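REVIEWER CHECKLIST
Item 1: Sequence provided? yes
Item 2: Single chain? yes
Item 3: Sequence as submitted:
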Amino acid sequence: MISRPIIEHHDQVRPEWIDSNNHMNLAYYVVVFDYATDALYRTLEIGDAYRQASGNSCFTAETHTLYEREVHLDDRLLVRTWLLGADTKRIHYLHEMFHAESGDRSAVQELMALHIDMAVRRVRPFPSDQYAALRRAVSEYAPATPPNGAGRRIALPNR
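Item 4: Structure as written out by the authors:
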């Protein structure tokens, strides 16, 4: 089994993303990861076109972001997205952000999204054909070993 990300997203640190510490503010890591989520949803055919056609969407229910290295103004970024799993109502995925030139990993964000019926704004199962497509994507793209940081919890050391 060859592990590979389901999508890659490229971006660049913009001036308005720089904070008083002269690096990208933590909020904008989330923005870049959100752009990568949009690309993932387009790839999985559950993005804007799906919402307009079906009346369903996906809402992020939980995230965990780990900041590892600073990025600065004009740094080029590469986000690799890993599809970790899906069930009838949820998608589990992880983004890794890299400094494009050095290859150093800058941040990781793990997410759980819920499938939502927009008419009632409640969780509902994916339609069977969409769920089958998600299962095929998981089968093709789920890594044999989850990327470093997947499943991590926040805690003090030794607790």
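Item 5: Key structural point noted by reviewer: The longest strand covers residues 105-117.
Item 6: Recommendation: ____
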